[in-house]
Design goal:
13 helices, disordered N terminus, 2% strand, mainly alpha
Length: 221
């Protein structure tokens, strides 16, 4: 019996989810390069289209298992360009990032396909591990703060105020213990809640959500 393999099973694609994940990968890629200020300083804002295309290619392949031809049609690239992005070496890209000044001189007009692909792959992995761009984490914090004010949730507002400027993801409890020392969260010592949290914590919204779950579990007992 002959079995014909026509392609990998594909994940159903929601356009909003796709856009959201591509944007996060794109912002993380900019983060890896030092941020927009650094790109402007080196006059390399022209790299942004290459990074955006590479982010689309990597997400469509790794998240939705699209074929090279499908990705090429979707993003408006040749099949060979898509293939080169997917074959890019993230380790080599990381080495290039460390020597940003040299990279800016070598690829001044447009970032090469392999470089953009490698950076997009790195960014995708970091986002999937919960390490979003600092710009987005800051936005999450501001949005969460606005919501807690609007809903009048004093403990959540107090937690956000005490943890302002903290770097996410939070890998363990030590930093939270330091920032929330002495704070009562719904009349519970913050230390009692922190010890029940699951780490790493990805962003401010994740922190508030997990604290709320711990409070509910304690109050339910």
């Amino acid at each position: 019996m002959v079995i014909e393999i026509t392609g990998l099973p594909q994940t159903e694609m929601n356009e909003k989810d796709l856009e959201y994940l591509v944007s996060r990968v794109f912002f993380k890629a900019i983060d890896l390069l030092g941020g927009l200020n650094k790109l402007a300083e080196y006059r390399t804002l022209t790299w942004l289209p290459s990074l955006a295309r590479a982010a689309y290619v990597v997400v469509l392949r790794d998240e939705y298992l699209k074929t090279e031809d499908e990705i090429a049609r979707r993003v408006g690239l040749t099949r060979n360009t898509v293939r080169n992005i997917l074959r890019a070496d993230p380790t080599l890209a990381m080495e290039k990032i460390k020597k940003l000044e040299d990279l800016a001189k070598e690829e001044v007009r447009e970032m090469k396909v392999h470089t953009a692909g490698g950076i997009a792959k790195l960014a995708y992995k970091m986002v999937k591990d919960g390490n979003d761009a600092e710009t987005l984490v800051l936005y999450y914090g501001m949005a969460a703060e606005d919501i807690t004010k609007a809903l009048d949730i004093p403990w959540a507002y107090a937690v956000l105020k005490c943890t302002k400027g903290i770097k996410y993801p939070i890998e363990d409890s030590s930093l939270l213990r330091e920032r929330l020392a002495g704070l009562k969260i719904k009349n519970l010592p913050s230390e009692d809640i922190i010890e029940k949290l699951h780490f790493p914590i990805k962003n401010p919204a994740h922190l508030l959500h997990d604290i709320k779950l711990v409070i509910s579990s304690i109050e339910g007992n």
